[in-house]
Amino acid sequence: MKSEGKKYDWEVGKPPPRLDEHSQTKHRLVSDYLKRYIEVVMSNASMEKLSLNIVDGFAGGGRYIDILSQQLTNGSPFLILEAIKDAEISLNINRKKPRYIDAEYHFVEKEAS
Is residue 3 very low, low, confident or very high in pLDDT (cuts 50, 70, 90)? Predict the structure, then answer.
């Protein structure tokens, strides 16, 4: 059941909520920022590992319907996981000795649903 005044409401068995353009832009910024941050912090090629604590204080349900394309799209928890994975892959291009991102994730959402 959708609560009054709640924009994003997830209900098991129901389609996910629609994601507005401004939220999509925010998601792209978070993803791009994480990738760039890791690139800069690990610019010294001899740095083998980066330890990070990632906290998403408004994690939501993780999936939305894109308001423009009407397709299923990822929310911030999945985008963060993908950004870290992509950054680690990028760090290891043309390397013999792998570099690692040791990330601890905290996805917080006050609404249990």
Answer: very low
